[in-house]
Structures are given as C-alpha cells and as structure tokens.
Amino acid sequence: MHRPRSVHDAEVAGKRVLVRSDLNVPLEDGRIADETRIQASLPTLKLVLERDAAEVTVCSHLGRPAGPDPQFSLQPVEQRLRELLPDDRLRVLENTRFNPGETKNDAAYARELADANDLFVQDAFASVHRAHASTVGVAELLPAYAGLLLERELGELGKLLGDVERPFVLISGGAKVEDKLAVLKNLGGKADAVLVGGKMAEQIRAGNPLPFDVVLPVDVVAASEFAENAETKIVPYDALPDGWLGLDIGPETSKVFAERIREARTIFWNGPMGVFEWSRFAEGTKAVAEAVASSEGFSVVGGADSARALQELGLADRVSWLSTGGGAALELLEGKDLPGVAVIPPA
Questions:
Q1: Which candidate among 18, 218, 251, 322 keeps its CA 20 to 30 Å from the CA of 6?
Q2: What CA–CA distance (Å, rounded) separates 340 from 4?
Q3: Can you state the angle between helices 177-188 and 199-206, rounded to 10 degrees?
Q4: Confidence of residue 185 (pLDDT cuts 50, 70, 90)
C-alpha cells in the first residue's frame, strides 16, 4: 500500500498552507447534528498552526449540491471550527461542490484553489477515493503531504490487509450487497467468520455470489409495512408472512452474532443490521455494536451508519478505530489505489 509523505515532514513555517479537511457533517435545520468529523480535522490544523504557518486555508465539500445552495453552506461549520480554533490565520472556503469543476477535477478550479498557497495537506480520508479538483488536481500543483487523520486511517485500516490475529470476524450489513461485494471477497476469504445482516442477508440467501459460506440470520423482526409504527413480530427467517418485511435481525440471531464477535481477536464491521434509525428495529444493530465495543481484540468500524450507531450508543471510544471514511475505507480494503493518496509523493 502506498505510504504518502507526512505533514510532519513539511516545512510550513511562514508558508501559506491549503488543507483539504473532511467537514462533510450532517446538518439539521442549519445546525450541526454531529461534529465528529470536525473534531477529527483539528489535530492537523493545530499542528500546522503551531508550526507557524503564515496562513491556513481549509477547504471541504458538504453534501451533494448541484451548485450553490444555502442548504449546503459551510458557514455553520466555519463558525464551529472558529470556536474550536480561534486563530486569525485560519480561513475556511465555501463548499467546494458549489463549483461545477470540483467533481470534474477541472484544472482551472484546481488552479484557483492552489493560487496564493505554498503547499497542500490532504487530510480528508473520506474523499480520497474521488479524483476531484480538491483531492487530486490541487495536489498536482502544490507540494503535497498527508495529514494526521489520513495517515492514521491508512495505518489502522491497513492492519486488516496484513496478517491479523485470529479469529478474524467480518460483519457486514446495510441495503446492497453490490456496494460491499469486493470487500467481502477480498477480506472475507481470509476471515474465520463472515456475519451478514440487513437487506444484504436476503440478497445473499437468494444467491450467494461469494466463494465461501457466510453466517446469515436465523430469525428476523418482521414488520407489516415499511413504517416506524408498523405491526411487528419475531419470526424465523423462512416464515416471513406474505407482504411483510424483515427490518432487523431477530434476538436469536443477535445472540449468535454476539457470541462469534466476542470470540474474535480481529473485527471489521460495516453496515447496520436493520433499519436502526427507528428504535423498534435497532436492537440487532445495538447488540452487534455492544459486542464489538466489548471485544478485547482489535476492532475497526467503518461506514456512516455503523459509526452513527456507535456514537448514539456512547460506544465510539470503545473500539480500536472508528473510520471517518465509508466509500474510501471500502475501496482501500478492496485493494484499490486511492487517487487522492496516490498523487502524494511517497514517504
């Protein structure tokens, strides 16, 4: 795996530094709903400021706007960042995706970002799988370095690609097996157990595309309709009433999954076990989260939904590493090169 050179080795004193942070936080009614990613961006920004950078300019995207859109403005994020880092040398640019050249890796927009800066620090791990102007284009114009968060992400996730302590248990959930199929094939083949919940379990049961067996739910929480207040009952996986939906793994499956997780010495979890946003269908995800958090082994959790579940349960600090990257983490674990990392010179 490509190891990019570190911001630790950058000469930033007196320099104007452009930092690509990941400030893509959820907003509710214009307010920050979860500032985990803001907090994760602070160590690199503090380091550059403490090393006497003349100016630090932060850029990031937020959401997927088609153009300038007040709903996706970074102003609330900038306000919070200034509260956490009250330094006059710090400036925050508006949402990079307000410029149509961002996602096209447009040379003119990359030049606009690079102008008036002396070097570039890439710290937005969650975006390095995308070849955008703020992740790749600008790194081709300025001396580029990896930030502290990016380095940590590569190091912690990279441990799963090497020799791991066994038993190694991989837990996967969510809606679409296609999104995670490559990771399941790459990592699952060396795992001692692969536990699959969520809609993915139904897809795999209908026709397993993997070259190995997986552990699937034995029971589900069935709902009469896809609604938070739907009628529910617990049934075996093969006794789902006609027209009903399985919206969570059942209690027996939760026990089976938790036991396998407790035995593990290495764990990777990505994806909820059901529609955990609704409390009546969150018990399976909660059981998995608690089992992962209770493990004495090395545990890595990736994906926004899994991370959110851990945060809401107050368990985030009880796993070895909580990744800030969803798609980037999956692509790294698939064995793919990440464009935003590959463009940085090696250490």
A1: 322
A2: 10
A3: 70
A4: confident
* Helix, strand, coil percent values for the chain (each to nearest 5): 40, 20, 40
Instruction: Retrieve residue 175's tokens.
Output: 């809606």
Say if residues 119 and 90 touch (Cβ distance below 8 Å): no
How many residues are listed for the chain in this entry? 347
Mean pLDDT for the stretch of residues 84-110: 97
* Residue 118 scores a pLDDT above 90: yes
Residue 225 is assigned to a structural domain of this protein: yes
Count other C-beta atoms under 10 Å from residue 202's C-beta: 18
- Rounded to 5°, the CA angle 184-302-47 comes to 135
Domain range spanning residue 237? 163-333
215 and 100 co-located in one domain: no
Average pLDDT over residues 185-197: 91
In a domain, 240, yes or no: yes
User: What pLDDT, on the 0 to 100 scale, is given for residue 303?
Assistant: 83
Q: Are residues 274 and 127 in the same domain?
A: no
Q: Is residue 345 part of a domain?
A: no
Residues 119 and 143: beta-carbon distance below 8 Å: yes
- Given a cut of 80, whether residue 143 has pLDDT beyond it is yes
Model pTM above 0.85: yes
15 with 137, same domain: the answer is yes
Instruction: Quote the CA–CA distance of 269 and 150 in Å, as a whole number.
Output: 20
**CATH code of 43's domain:** 3.40.50.1260
Given a cut of 90, whether residue 226 has pLDDT beyond it is yes
CB 56 within 8 A of CB 116: no
Examine the fold and report which residue of 101, 125, 151 is the final residue of a domain before the chain moves on.
151
What's the burial of 233, exposed, middle or buried (CB within 10 Å: 0-12/13-18/19+)? Answer: middle
Question: How far, in Å, CA of 139 to CA of 137, rounded?
Answer: 5
Residue-wise pLDDT for 239-277, tens only, equals 999 999 999 999 999 999 999 999 999 999 999 999 999
Confidence band (pLDDT; 50, 70, 90) for 177? confident
